[in-house]
Amino acid sequence: MRLKGKTIAILAENMYQEMELWVPYYRLKEEGAEVKVVGTGAKSYTSKMGYPVNADVSAEEVKAGDFDAVIIPGGYAPDLMRRSGAMIKLVKDAFQSGKVVAAICHAGWMLCSAGVLKGKTATGFHSIKDDLVNAGARYVDQEVVVDGNLITSREPKDLPAFCREIIKALEKAS
Known about the structure:
Helix content: 25-40%
Strand content: 15-25%
Low-confidence stretches: none
CATH superfamily: Class I glutamine amidotransferase (GATase) domain
């Protein structure tokens, strides 16, 4: 129970990538964290393959200070998430206040929209490399990249490294 007392937000929207939401969700719960699914306003969202997830709260109902970390799964959901001003504010405020912000795959789109990549080293799914670079990041092709309080990974096969670094960062933040 290495993360007992920690509260984590996992962002959700339609077209999320199943493993990128559910693997961190259960892995962090396994370590004792309280994990809340934060949506853009709906009560339920459907993954790329039709798997549902229910939101505990909407981004408008929470603030960065409510959480120790914000995790952004990929899929096509980040393109829908970044249309929500409240969700962008949550990510930006969490980042600026030194909370752990972790993004995998296409979740880098949210980092671009939140304006948190300038001068950072990051990774993501190869098709959004140009977006990350144009937002000011130094792109590297690695399974996981940690730059300060920012953690990024490329795709589902990188989930073990992604989760390991999130847990490590949250333990340091104790």
